TrEMBL record, chain A:
InterPro entries: ARM-like, ARM-type_fold, Armadillo. Residues 362-441 are annotated as: Disordered. Residues 395-410 have a biased composition (Polar residues). ARM repeats lie at residues 531-573, 625-667, 749-791, 874-916, 956-989. GO terms for biological process: animal organ development. Residues 418-432 have a biased composition (Acidic residues). Transmembrane segments: none annotated. This is Armadillo repeat-containing protein 4. Pfam families: Arm. SUPFAM superfamilies: ARM repeat. The lineage of its organism: Eukaryota, Metazoa, Chordata, Craniata, Vertebrata.
TrEMBL record, chain B:
This is EF-hand domain-containing protein. Keywords: Calcium, Metal-binding, Repeat. The keyword Calcium applies. Coiled coil: none annotated. GO terms for molecular function: calcium ion binding. SUPFAM superfamilies: EF-hand. Residues 67-102, 103-138, 148-183 form the EF-hand domain. InterPro entries: EF-hand-dom_pair, EF_Hand_1_Ca_BS, EF_hand_dom, Recoverin. It comes from Culter alburnus. It comes from the Eukaryota.
Length: 1037, 211
């Protein structure tokens, strides 16, 4: 990007804009693609913070940032990711945008949709030397080294793109001229809107080389002459097209005659450019028809020229790829073969290896080559800072893999994405450090036996292959040593090759081994690298059921990481696996053949279970018609079938479409039924599926109707199995959102058990337990139960935690408990309100809001609440300042709390000093009904002090409040009427209200059935009326 | 034989389907007809006895896709129960019943008989070497080109010789195969694969009344 940007990109004459040229277009496209994919391809490098941010004027708006990576506050956007100084890595305050990392650049482009190109262009225009900004003045550090390499590659690629057009620059061809003339002719006409009057060649004769100019002129590179009549230039333009460009003949009829030098005007690169300069009408019209005139010729021209280049480019690209692959391949082989060699420096056994002559000559050559590269590399680093050298060295002498990796990356920068891809994998299958029993001073005899067997495999016919495969199976294949031995001696290649043969017994034998050893994550990766998944997916089509089963089971093992799952999908594996599910397991006694079909379906479900951990695969399973098949298999009586089926379903239940299907296809009944089975794993998956689905009310009702609540409560007693407990408590939590279910839980004495689970449990259990208690506590009779079973204390204790999900639930539960005065006494004794108050400082808006909501009932029910609140040093200032939050729920909750606080006059005086009045007034323009309600309440309560009532009027809070009466939410009406009544005690406010048509609205409210609303509305009208009367009296005495 | 009339064939089929498992009368009839068709092409003199070795091997090769000479000879010997160097119609139908529809036990017996080259009730080391001699690509670098074969035979023996007497008895073989079905044809291909079986049956049993 350094060199290419400064040299290749074409800047406009004033050097602050990019020229709109095909070359720039190509370069921008390349940069765009590169940046857009950067986040996925180089996840680690993408996180590195730039030395200086890239800043530019963007056309993006806050509404474009639809992603949970950002916090949107009205027009401005802040990324949730920030640096050490807690500065957001992306900040937008339109039109200025500041970005600190490739991760956000990449994400931004993905969000930009059709504005992508524009953004890239604006960014480059504003940041002429991005490399300097990214790396700063110092040389890149080790981490940045990778990033530097990646960017270097891009730069090289850009240069290669740039060189092509430069080579042909200024070479106009007859064909290009013809295309352009044809295009211009299309814009000629007679109407008002025509762009040109006419375009014609001076000669109709075309020479075989495509030129029209006479041969003696062709010698000078001339192609043809044109006569163009524009709408606004006189005289008609006489134009010559030369291979070096187009120019005007000003004196074609002059004395100079045919042989006079015709080159009078400036040379333009093409006809359109010339016309734009000569004819203002053309320039204007062409701007209007921009897309038609400007783009078409340029793309057509590039197209034309490109056809010549395409082949060449294709080839270079191909060979580049090829080369890279080779290097990578070698590196990989090297990795596989020389793994022990890497440790050779330290450990004896590998030396012995060598002495024994067991390293093939080929390996030795590789080894030497590697060594020389290694030393070279160290030399290279010698010129850099000694620190980096040391680091590299230590890397290398340490465990073999990181060293090898880094050396590979340095040698084959292009191959980097291969690694970054795997590092982006899910947590469930992290790249494990290459391991080999360190203590293996003598390689075990098994190693040599395996090596021998693999050697025979390579040269055996079908019969011997089967014998050798069976013998290989006799090794303890669950042992990592054996797994890695098979890989290290090249056994995986052979096994995977066998899958491509026609010999069914060889395929079965090979798969039986692959199935076993693929429980090792390194083996999984190698199988995927060697293309094993593709072959196994195609084996799913085989008519042999045993073979299908083995392939599906092996896929189930291999597809434990993201790339593998994607490969399965991309090769049509999901559809085939779903087809495996299609068996008819009904009927009590099954024939042998049916049993095999069921087994096939089971293996298919196993594979789908692994695959379903990727969102795209969930969708693919659904589209392949998997849901009804899973629903059918869910009726199976076999546990080994049910586990993968329910496992898949609960995995997929993260998707709305599945949750609906689980409900509508009648699966809740089966899930509930299996809650009572005798297999904890199955019970866990069922509970987990219910957990995910029970956000939906109808699903919750179904769980109750099928009698699922009792077994859930029974499962609470399986407290040793934490995974099961987490799933069960989760299901109980979500089910308890329905009050009918809470009643059932009461009946089953679930609350007492839940309270017991408040201590000594892992957080994922606690979150759910507390969530469930919070829901149950919405029913007042449960408040006493929680207290009596000793739940208040552990709940309050949990307020000191740090897990945000847990804190949200704990604050909610404590708040619910505080509605009971007896509970409140305990909470007060435990200093619970202070703990809640300090959670207002939590960085998570959800925790803030939840804490503020919980504070409300505490203030309401605590004895001497005013005194208590005052005792929190800085507490009132803290809560008032939360009115600056951008989060609507935080604002609503804080308003509610302020309304409660303001009931104590002394406290009201304090918060008034902290500026609560203008801050509340500032929020009045909201359209959010929840916020409106609590805001109106807060305003009503805050009017009670000093001149606050007047101040609200002065701060412009009155007019917006009047509008609240038009809201559709009745709870807004009551609070608003109360606020208006308080405000109407100031005559000026009455005038404002009246001007805003409040009377008519209030008259409607007086007719309400809500007495408080009635009274407040009537009193407000009375105040307004009284003022009017007084006014009349004053006027007319 | 070629002159065998309808009545005769029916009687024979009746008898055979009682003696031989897996085929009903109609199927037995089809097989008998097919057999006489196969014989018809043979010289009259030999036809009286049944299929000779060459003809039988041709059938194994062309119809059942076998390629290994040793194996084909052995399959012929096992089919030819009375050792008269011809496969009679009864032997043919009996053999096919295992070939096409044999249970695992029957197939184990069949394969064992094939692999027990000298018929002494054991598969010996030497017999294994004989059967596996072409199963590995010879490594020119090795001192003893047969070392690999001997090794594979040792592997097989180790896997199969349950009673450690250095040879594989029928019971050894049976245990091995029941434990790992893949080893049924451990020493060479001597049974047709599923596809060939299907084709053969389709051909032999299609619309029997047309014959």
């Amino acid at each position: 990007m350094g060199v290419a940007l400064s040299r290749a990109i074409q800047w406009s004459s004033d050097a602050d804009k990019l020229e709109d040229s095909p070359l720039n277009n190509d370069l921008l496209t390349e940069i765009l693609l590169f940046t857009e994919e950067f986040g996925d391809r180089h996840p680690q490098e993408a996180r590195l913070k730039f030395s200086e941010p890239l800043q530019w004027k963007t056309t993006l708006e806050a509404s474009d940032f639809i992603s949970d990576l950002y916090d949107i506050r009205e027009e401005s956007v802040m990324s949730l990711g920030y640096d050490d100084n807690r500065r957001s890595l992306l900040q937008l305050s339109p039109p200025d945008i500041t970005v600190y990392s490739f991760y956000y650049l990449s994400n931004l482009l993905q969000l930009s949709k059709d504005k992508k190109m524009k953004e890239v262009q604006s960014c480059l225009e504003a940041n002429r030397e991005p490399m300097k900004k990214i790396f700063g003045p110092r040389s890149p550090s080790i981490h940045e080294d990778e990033l530097f390499n990646v960017l270097q590659q891009l730069d090289e690629k850009l240069l290669s793109i740039a060189v092509r057009p430069i080579a042909r620059e200024g070479r106009l061809s007859p064909a290009a001229v013809d295309i352009e003339v044809d295009l211009l002719k299309r814009f000629c006409g007679t109407g008002e809107n025509r762009v040109l009057k006419s375009v014609r060649y001076t000669s109709d004769y075309v020479f075989s080389n495509g030129c029209r100019s006479p041969p003696w002129r062709q010698m000078d590179g001339e192609i043809c002459s044109l006569i163009i009549e524009t709408c606004d230039t006189e005289p008609t333009l006489f134009i010559t097209c030369n291979t070096s460009g187009v120019f005007l003949d000003e004196e074609i009829n002059g004395e100079g005659g045919e042989n006079s030098n015709r080159r009078k005007s400036e040379v333009y690169k093409d006809l359109v450019t010339l016309l734009k300069n000569m004819s203002t009408h053309f320039a204007k019209a062409s701007d209007e028809k921009d897309s038609a005139i400007q783009d078409v010729p340029s793309t057509e021209k590039t197209l034309h020229v490109e056809t010549v280049d395409a082949e060449e480019t294709g080839q270079t690209l191909k060979s580049y790829d090829h080369e890279e692959k080779n290097v990578l391949e070698k590196a990989r082989q090297q990795l596989a073969r020389n793994k022990p060699g890497g440790r050779k420096k330290k450990l004896e056994p590998s030396l012995k290896w060598k002495n024994l002559g067991l390293v093939s000559p080929y390996d030795e050559a590789e080894e030497k080559a590697r060594k020389s590269r290694e030393s070279k590399r160290i030399l290279e680093y010698g010129t850099k800072s000694p620190a980096s050298e040391n680091k590299k060295k230590s890397n290398f002498s340490g465990s073999s893999l990181p060293g090898c990796h880094s050396s590979q990356k340095i040698k084959t920068p292009g191959g980097a994405d291969d690694f970054s891809e795997s590092s982006s994998d899910d947590e469930e299958d992290e790249e494990q450090p290459e391991r080999r029993a360190e203590a293996a001073t003598d390689l075990p005899s098994e190693y040599w036996q395996i090596q021998k067997l693999v050697k025979y495999l390579k040269g055996a016919n079908q019969t011997a292959t089967v014998i050798v495969l069976c013998s290989l199976r006799d090794f303890n294949l669950v042992q990592e040593m054996c797994q890695l031995a098979i890989r290290d001696v090249g056994g995986l290649e052979v096994l995977i090759n066998l899958l491509d043969t026609d010999e069914i017994r060889c395929k079965i034998g090979s798969l039986k081994i692959l199935k076993e050893i693929s429980c090792n994550s390194q083996i999984r990766r190698t199988i995927a690298d060697l293309g094993g998944l593709q072959t196994m997916v195609s084996i799913l089509d085989s008519p042999d059921k045993e073979l299908k089963c083995l392939a599906a089971e092996t896929i189930a093992n291999v597809a434990k990481f993201r790339r593998a799952r994607r490969t399965v999908r991309q090769h049509g594996g999901i559809k085939r696996l779903v087809e495996l599910l299609d068996c008819v397991p009904d009927g009590v006694s099954l024939s042998k053949e049916q049993e095999r079909d069921v087994e096939v379906a089971r293996c298919g479900a196993l594979a789908l279970w692994s695959c379903s951990k990727s969102t795209w695969n969930k969708e693919a399973i659904r589209r392949a018609g998997g849901i009804p098949l899973l629903a059918r298999l869910l009726k199976s009586p076999q546990k080994n079938m049910l586990i993968p089926v329910v496992g898949t379903l609960q995995e997929c239940a993260s998707e709305e479409s599945y949750r609906i299907a689980i409900q509508t296809e009648g699966m809740i009944e089966d899930l509930v039924k299996n809650l009572s089975c005798d297999n904890q794993e199955l019970q866990m998956h069922c509970a987990s599926a219910i957990f995910k689905c029970a956000e939906d009310k109808h699903t919750r009702d179904l769980v109750r109707q099928y009698g699922g609540l009792k077994p859930l409560v029974v499962l609470l007693n399986q407290a040793e199995n934490k995974q099961l407990l987490a799933a069960t408590t989760g299901a109980i939590w979500k089910c308890s959102i329905s009050m009918e279910n809470v009643a059932k839980f009461q009946e089953y004495k679930a609350l007492e058990i839940l309270v017991r689970l408040l201590t000594d449990q892992p957080e994922e259990v606690l979150v759910n337990v507390v969530g469930a208690l919070g829901e149950c506590a919405q029913k007042s009779e449960n408040l006493a139960i929680i207290r009596k079973s000793g739940g208040i204390k552990p709940l309050v204790n949990l307020l000191t935690g740090t897990n945000q999900a847990l804190l949200v639930n704990v604050t909610r539960a404590v708040g619910a408990c505080a509605t009971d005065p007896e509970n409140m006494v305990i909470i007060d004794q435990l200093d619970g309100v202070r703990l809640l108050w300090s959670l207002l400082k939590n960085p998570s808006p959800e925790v803030q809001a939840s804490a503020a909501w919980a504070i409300c009932p505490c203030i309401e029910n605590a004895k001497d609440a005013g005194e208590m609140v005052r005792s929190f040093v800085g507490g009132l200032e803290l809560i008032v300042n939360l009115l600056k939050s951008q989060n609507k729920d935080v604002l609503a909750s804080v308003c509610a709390a302020i309304a409660k606080i303001a009931k104590d006059v002394e406290n009201l005086a304090v918060i008034t000093d902290h500026g609560v009045v203008p801050m509340l007034a500032n929020l009045t323009n909201t359209g959010d009904d929840k916020l409106r309600r609590y805001l109106a309440e807060a305003i009503a309560c805050c009017c009670m002090w000093g001149s606050n009532c007047v101040s609200f009027g002065e701060a412009g809070a009155v007019a917006p409040l009047v509008r609240y009466l038009r809201s559709n939410d009745p709870s807004v009406h009551q609070a608003t009427a109360r606020a208006l009544f308080e405000l109407s005690k100031d005559p000026n406010n009455c005038i404002t209200m009246h001007e805003n048509g409040v009377v008519k609205l209030l008259l409607v409210m007086i007719g309400s059935t809500d007495e408080i609303l009635q009274e407040a509305a009537a009193s407000c009208v009375a105040n307004i009326r009284r003022l009017a009367l007084a006014n009349d009296k004053a006027k007319y005495g | 034989m070629s002159a065998m009339n309808r009545k005769l064939i029916q009687n024979l089929a009746e008898t055979l389907c009682k003696q031989v498992k897996h085929f009903d009368k109609a199927e037995a009839e089809c097989l008998i007809r097919q057999f006489s068709g196969l014989l018809g092409e043979q010289a009259e003199r030999r036809a009286a006895h049944g299929l000779d070795r060459v003809r039988f091997r041709n059938i194994l090769h062309n119809t059942f896709g076998m390629t290994d000479d040793v194996m084909m000879d052995r399959v012929f010997r096992v089919f030819d129960k009375d050792n008269d160097t011809y496969v009679s119609v009864k032997e043919w139908v009996e053999g096919l019943s295992v070939f096409l529809r044999g249970t695992l036990d029957e197939k184990i017996k069949f394969c064992f008989d094939v692999y027990d080259l000298n018929g002494d009730g054991y598969i010996s080391r030497e017999e294994m070497i004989q059967m596996l001699k072409d199963s590995l690509i010879r490594q020119p670098v090795e001192e003893d080109p047969d070392e690999g074969i001997k090794d594979v035979v040792d592997i097989a023996l180790k896997k199969m010789d349950y009673d450690h007497d250095g040879k594989v008895s029928y019971s050894d073989f049976e245990k091995t195969v029941i434990d790992e079905n893949l080893l049924l044809e451990a020493f060479g291909n001597c049974l047709p694969d599923a596809k060939r079986i299907l084709l053969f049956e389709q051909h032999a049993f299609r619309e029997p009344h047309e014959h």
